[in-house]
């Protein structure tokens, strides 16, 4: 396929939930592409020492998720999605405008993820959590339903799946919202259906995703 061998995806173990957090963004792409990898889970307690070890190895600003390929370190969620898309020669835009558009969608989703994380991991106030639930979250759902209506769908760029599609699906998983009223959000409803019917993802979603 490519020079992608001996891949290790590192991320936290969080709250006995196999999918919550940023590791799953990368994982969905790898699963869809049928790329083999080992998922290495870290506890919060162990991460401090592990991070120091990475710093000692001159890894700059180590954070999770990160990936090693044959021992070489690569990091940051959206850049990892773009990196793998580039390596696999799929899931990318086919011209500068599409590439920019996908970048913008990925940026929106990463912002959404940070705001969602603030409500779950308590780094924001209760007032922020209320605003997230009543305004921020619904605004993102509406925006992406509208974006999906810009093409015939079912994916962000239309017929062809691209890397922000995996991110969009997963932020909605994290936000515990992957079932849509087809009347209110017909395009999100069709999107979720299309993702769930990707052959490799269908098999993966049937597991416990440990
Ligand atoms: N912009 C980075 C953010 C990564 C990040 O903050 N990850 C968190 C976990 S979701 C983390 O590693 N926290 C521990 C730390 O910063 O040491 C990305 O998209 O990957």
TrEMBL record:
Per its UniProt record, what Gene3D superfamilies does this chain match? 1.20.1050.10, Glutaredoxin
Q: Which residues form the GST N-terminal domain?
A: 10-92
Q: Which SUPFAM superfamilies match?
A: GST C-terminal domain-like, Thioredoxin-like
Please indicate which superkingdom the organism of origin belongs to: Eukaryota
Q: Name one GO molecular function term.
A: glutathione transferase activity
- Domain GST C-terminal residues, every copy: 95-210
Q: Which InterPro entries match?
A: Glutathione-S-Trfase_C-like (IPR010987), Glutathione-S-Trfase_C_sf (IPR036282), Glutathione_S-Trfase (IPR040079), Glutathione_S-Trfase_N (IPR004045), GST_C (IPR004046), GST_superfamily (IPR050213), Thioredoxin-like_sf (IPR036249)
Q: Which Pfam families match?
A: GST_C_3 (PF14497), GST_N (PF02798)
Name the Gene Ontology biological process terms: glutathione metabolic process
Q: What is this protein called?
A: Glutathione S-transferase
Which species is this UniProt entry from? Mucor saturninus
Its lineage opens with: Eukaryota, Fungi, Fungi incertae sedis, Mucoromycota, Mucoromycotina
């Amino acid at each position: 396929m490519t020079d992608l061998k001996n891949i290790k995806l590192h991320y936290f173990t969080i709250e006995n939930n196999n999918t919550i957090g940023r590791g799953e963004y990368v994982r969905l792409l790898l699963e869809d592409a049928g790329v083999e990898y080992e998922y290495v889970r870290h506890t919060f307690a162990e991460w401090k020492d592990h991070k120091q070890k990475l710093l000692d190895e001159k890894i700059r600003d180590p954070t999770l998720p990160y990936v090693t390929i044959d021992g070489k370190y690569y990091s940051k969620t959206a850049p990892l999605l773009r990196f793998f898309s580039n390596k696999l020669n799929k899931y990318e835009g086919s011209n500068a405008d599409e590439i920019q558009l996908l970048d913008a969608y990925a940026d929106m989703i990463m912002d959404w993820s940070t705001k969602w994380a603030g409500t779950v991991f308590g780094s924001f106030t209760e007032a922020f959590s209320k605003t997230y639930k009543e305004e921020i979250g619904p605004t993102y759902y509406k925006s992406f339903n509208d974006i999906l209506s810009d093409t015939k769908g079912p994916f962000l760029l239309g017929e062809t799946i691209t890397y922000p599609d995996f991110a969009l699906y997963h932020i909605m998983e994290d936000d515990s919202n992957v079932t849509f009223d087809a009347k209110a959000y017909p395009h999100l409803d069709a999107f979720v259906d299309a993702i769930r019917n990707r052959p490799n993802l269908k098999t993966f979603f049937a597991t416990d995703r440990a």
